[in-house]
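Listing 4. Sequential folding, example run.
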Amino acid sequence: MASDCEPALNQAEGRNPTLERYLGALREAKNDSEQFAALLLVTKAVKAGDIDAKTRRRIFDAVGFTFPNRLLTTKEAPDGCPDHVLRALGVALLACFCSDPELAAHPQVLNKIPILSTFLTARGDPDDAARRSMIDDTYQCLTAVAGTPRGPRHLIAGGTVSALCQAYLGHGYGFDQALALLVGLLAAAETQCWKEGEPDLLAVLRGLSEDFQKAEDASKFELCQLLPLFLPPTTVPSECLRDLQAGLARILGSKLSSWQRNPALKLAARLAHACGSDWIPAGNSGSKFLALLVNLACVEVRLALEETGTEVKEDVVTACYALMELGIQECTRCEQSLLKEPQKVQLVSVMKEAIGAVIHYLQQVGPEKQKEPFVFASVRILGAWLAEETSSLRKEVCQLLPFLVRYAKTLYEEAEEANDLSQQVATLAISPTTPGPTWPGDALRLLLPGWCHLTVEDGPREILIKEGAPSLLCEYFLQQWELTSPGHDTSALPDSAEVSLQTCCHIFLNLVVTAPGLIKRDACFTSLMNTLMASLPALVQQQGRLLLAANVATLGLLMARLLSTSPALQGTPASRGFFAAAILFLSQSHVARATPGSDQAVLALSPDYEGIWADLQELWFLGMQAFTGCVPLLPWLAPAALRSRWPQELLQLLGSVSPNSVKPEMVAAYQGVLVELARANRLCREAMRLQAGEETASHYHMAALEQCLAEP
């Protein structure tokens, strides 16, 4: 076609003479027929070769949008002219205009998106050259729009996602262009794409998954790179999971080069992040596949981090971290684990070596690298390991603790950057889009479970205290408490926020028991105590937060024993409100429950406590013990307890149930509280006697209570 045209550029005039002649004919056209003929000539000149931006703009100035609009929407073509020829001409002109980014974002182009989308799935002769040309021009227009700042949003709103899916599934002319454009839209606006076109996108995923499972050539490696983009933010269809797992099993079970293996590892990591282990079948084949995944991941991590001077492929290693996390979860699962015990032992061994490599890497990280996403990912996997295992690599972990405290403090103090880091890690690890659940945005939350274990041990605890971890934890707890308290928007907070508060409480409980001097001398714990006292009264009244209330009540009671001389605990309104709430938590745990066929009730758990008693009972017993210890230290506490009627109601409860239904540890806990209250206050003793306290004490063999109530 180019051979039929005059030279593209006349050096003397700087313009294309042929195009100038056609544009002149267009300007002088007197009717639609003449304008149509001139447009055909202009289109021919445009397609004859490349044109610069100025020439393209001159064409637009001469043509405008009016006539292309008519060409796209006309339903009456001249005699002997197929109607799609007119549309093809209109699309060709739009494609020419869209080469200019400014014109691609023009409202007159954007409002053509629905029409252009219909051309992708229109039926017609697949061998028709004009129709093929129109399809190519349509993709050129849509791709140009997608490249503008707000283009993806307009395309999605205009129904392009569904049209592209149908064009790809139809495997007609240009279906590969449809897939390429879909990939771009998903990368730019994943959530909106799935919201507008979920059924069609799932159909594409089913097709790609089936192709992946059947592929025997190099296309399977290309599909490994595409498939992560098409995994939905919600549930992945089970048939897709089966195909993906089968395809990955064949790939990873073969001897591969790194460029073949790495996309497969990243796809597996994306599935692990989105679905946990649900995509791996149960049974022997599934356990072998999971073991293979974790072993490959650990080898990759060691090769990348142990060899100095080599460039680390951070996206691949971070994906391997996700697979290691899956391995950690399955190795620590007691019920319905995919792994057999010998496999667990072997995987713990290889993961220990990989974690050693992670520690080695983190020891080399300087201040200038602390805000890099890969460092965050490395701290994340270390945190996941320490949450389950602190006995191995103890020396290396202790050496790294100062860095971890400084790192967590840096990210805590720059919370917005930390949240951005979590998104970068997700992108780095899995795919070009944000996958699945949001990863926690602060390093401290990742490290809390491990630090909870380490504060029990003398050596690590001393390092954490020396590096200022308790003060940091107090600040963090107070901040998180504020964010999760009533009156604040908690919708943006991760589900793990309340679990993190509970873990902080466990760490503080460890410090109360193992480092009481620290609680007494560090001012941050006074602030913490004030927050606990102010917060518990409202917390015990809130549905669904009983476990957190148990943590707060027990921690506050234990700290109150150590801080009993503090002015804040000398019968102030805050302290009275706290202990009233603590009594409410301790007193409502058990009730008398009638049993069929028996005249006597039995002691049973309250409905609210029953479902979580396994997690609650240790805190409850510790809270009872701590309350008992507070009574002689705070003279106002026994009269307050009497006014709450707790001792009377407790004796009434014990008197109404069969003694055989009350376990010995419960008897001991109840007796401890009753004895201290009776010793501390004469009115308490009198009230207990009036409630048949001596008789109840005799029935339950509470010798200490019997003796105390026998005194004047």
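-- end of first protein; second protein begins --
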Amino acid sequence: MRRFVDNALAVTKESVKTFTYESLNNIARLINGVSALLLAILLGKSNILEGAQGWELRPTFHGPRFPRWMENGVSSFNQFIHELSVDSDSSSVDYASAEDEPDEIYRSTPSSPLSDGSGTCRTSTHINHDPHWTNWVAYIFSWIFLPARFLLRIPFLLFRLLSSRESKASLDTGSPHPRTFHPFRKVHSSKDHVVQRTIDRRRGVIEDLHLAIEIFIEAIFDMFHKAAYFVFSPFAAFRIFGKWFSSPSAGDKDIDDNVSNASVPTATLGANDPSPRERNLTLHHTLNTDARTCRDVITELGYPYEAIHVITSDGYVILLERLPRRDARKAVFLQHGILDSSMGWVSNGVVGSPAFAAFDQGYDVFLGNFRGLVSREHMDKNISLRQYWRFSINEHGTEDIPAMIEKIHEVKTAELKLSHPNEETNDEQPYKLCAISHSMGGAAMLMYVIIRRIEEKPHRLSRLVLLSPAGFHDETSFLFTVAHYICLLLAPILALFVPALYIPTRFFRMLFNKLVRDFHNYPAVGGLVQTILSYGFGGDSSNWVGVLGLPHYNMNDMPGLSFRVIHHLAQIKRTKKFRMYDFGSKAVNMEVYGSPEPIDLGEYYSLIDIPVDLVAGKKDQIITSSMVKKHYRLMKNSGVDVSYNEFEYGHLDFTFAHHEELLAFMMSRLLLVEPDLKRQSSPKKALKLKKTGQARSGVSSD
């Protein structure tokens, strides 16, 4: 009878699992099919999908491609390296959030003499978020999405419960020694977890629902199975109940502690003492989302990394990242654009990323990050949300970039004095620094150079390469035009209620992260979203869905967009001039600029004293090529050494897509700048030459 009940429960369980699994799959197929139908109805826009990097519309539908380092096809050698890094005692698998890590973890190479002072611990700048209306909105939406949150949390709670029971049951044997295969099973799964993190095996919402339903069904039928067991074996049931009510022994507690604190014997390859040593493993991100940082990408690919926390004059803490070549006399500074981060410069891996290409050419590479993260890092720990987001493009060009470039100058000067003590240059700057900027980063870089020239301060740059720079926005899509007019009309009201645009809570950022993964798993849905976004942005062919999958949009943090930045762009569009932020008051403008009107930067292009390379995209509908040509004409008329080039790219292709011709062009521009060195001999040799010269002058006088 007991066997019959067991078989009946097993058959019923598998039937229920199959029915629910297929039902969910049919719903997903229906959504994907409807999306494919809508995609086919949108005539005349197939070029949007074909223009996206990695998108192939024919012969079948393929989803938007993520970068190569996020795909599943990792080489066997790289997989071996990642597996070895888990077993090696010299590496760490602690993927804790930024708030939990000490500052030293952000350095993979020895720090420079002056970068220690700039390293500010993230925990020391953690902000106590004050109550705001966005918290109420997030609270309301959290109740609306309560069923989804419940289903997403069921798998992990049940898994922990079942795993703890299985571990206790397996250890409750007659042997006095605990069995050790559970810790090693945990270690094996942790290794798989690390490797899967490296090749981006994060789950989407549909996959989470599959897992939640399966674990829920397993738990329900496990309860029925145990109930049947108690009915058919009453004496065993009474014995189990007696163990439950009895106090646990100290030995069982020790065994439980040993299981919970699992460790793995490891040995460092090539070490003098190869005897295994135990190292505890700590794993996070149980929700299986991709929360890698730029540091993770750089170090996973085997490049050196250093993080320098820079404090601006108004108290913002921004992150300056680096691929260090400490003895290099040529450096490059890469600055991202709007709603982006330094991740964009390394998103295509070793082959297609500007940061790695510059490093391989012998440059000391610095990756800048603007203020404006959800984590709100500031020296004032109690700064309010509205106060933190009160910045425009002005602050990017007059606060962020100056602070980062001055830190670069401080660090490089100190390092080169140590590595080349017997050499000197013709000026006080022993290195050459070039800058590559994209979109809003280009506008901020132009603002920086002009304002430094007006203030008669050195800008320390030798060349500018501006990829689709912002600054002129006469021609924009219908959506952007409507948004600009709404922003201008309702600016006083919107500034009070919408200080910035970002995803407010960890749950919604996690949900967004998983939805993007579903866009990749269901290509018709991803294609529909890609087409809708391309429609909204005027037909720009950039891979919008792929960019949304970048890991800097994760549950821990993400770049936000200040309302003042939006308002500043709207002012530029209305006036058709590249000028600084208008505070709306002549008195305030007079105090800040010394004139009742903001500074028109286009009128000061004659102050630019370095070569500038402008690059535009023919398929770019965010900043059209005609707007980049407007920069070019003003610079040319002002006597600036400027060049103009066009490529068949969309707006995001300059950083996200892999284009060898663009990398070759950028590297060729950088190679035009070489350090002008004047070598000096050793002190003894110099003294000898000096005496020889004096003797010759004495002979000639005789």
